[in-house]
Amino acid sequence: MIRIQNIYYMLAYAFHVLNEEGYKQVATEDFEYTSDLFAAILSKGIASQIKRGLSREYISKTEAVISPAGKINVSASIVQNSMLKKKLVCDYDEFTENSCLNKILKTTAMLLIRCPEVSTQHKKALRKTMLYFSNVDEINPRRIQWSSIRYHRNNATYKMLLNICYLVIEGMLMTEQDGSRKLARYVDDQHMHRLYEKFVLEYYRRHYPQFNASSTIIDWDVDGGEIEYLPTMKSDITLRYRGKTLIIDTKYYEKTMQINSLFNSQTIHSHNLYQIFTYVKNMDLARSGNISGLLLYAKTDEDIVPDNDYIIGGNRISVKTLDLNTDFSNISKQLNAIVEKMLL
User: What is the SS3 string spanning the chain?
Assistant: First the structure.
């Protein structure tokens, strides 16, 4: 379990803009559902974006017009007999706020407005912002090409807003048997894992700058240098301090432990342990033992809560859990204690 309020704090670390003055009221509210939290953030964020000015872009259009614009499409004009109506079919570019970014914002806002778990207060705030989107179309949320979105100086302020939209649409949107769409009450584990990973990385970047927190590519320690077909190894978080290195692999599962039905026992997920061990041994080229690994699980409601340290092949491999269903001050204490014990 995770407190909804803590999702806000995780987002605030992942997207620094949420630390600005306009969002501070959100931090003091109590939320029962994730959708209500996202509605609160988006209503304030979209209102702020409206004050800055909505993004506009050139969109190609082809239509019959009385006053020619752009390039006259003679063949289309003949086919449509538009000249009989004293019109010409023209191809032209229109500079409009009906852009891809604004379409995603409106589509997400309307999903939240229709969601029964969103409070009346936040629905009202979202509806108010949508008055400025009257010329913006809703789109099929399942057809959004997220990978094609590019940010630059003129639309950088949309980045956090679009990431919230992504969590709502990709992490919560469900399609019913009758084809209708509704939002789940909570973000699915796959997308929460990504947020969890980003949060832990940004937490250490902010509070322990001396550790140079980063996500690092780890080279394979192979003889002869032939690495063709070997998969890329990339850590979630790598911390370095005074000759020591800690590789952290974050895990967000419904179940932390795997069950061995043959022996009626519970163990740490074997592939997780193999993965972190592989990262550590390939980074520790000097075999110094100064490279350590940590599997950091989000705590579940299971009876067994892993908190173990092992020395495997001369390197320290630890398994810890982070309780996200507590006051955020306690989450900070947990994260601080982990690295201070392993690096300082």
Answer: CCCHHHHHHHHHHHCHHHHCHHHHHHHHCCCCCHHHHHHHHHHHHHHHHHHHCCCCEEEEEEEEECCCCCEECHHHHHHCCHHHHCCEEEEEEEEECCCHHHHHHHHHHHHHHCCCCCCHHHHHHHHHHHHHHCCCCCCCHHHCCHHHCCCCCCCHHHHHHHHHHHHHHHHHEEECCCCCEEECCCCCHHHHHHHHHHHHHHHHHHHCHHHCCECCEECCCCHHHCCCCCCCEECCEEEEECCEEEEEEEECCCCCEEEECCCCEEEECHHHHHHHHHHHHHHCCCCCCCEEEEEEEECCCCCCCCCEEEEECCEEEEEEEECCCCCHHHHHHHHHHHHHHHCC
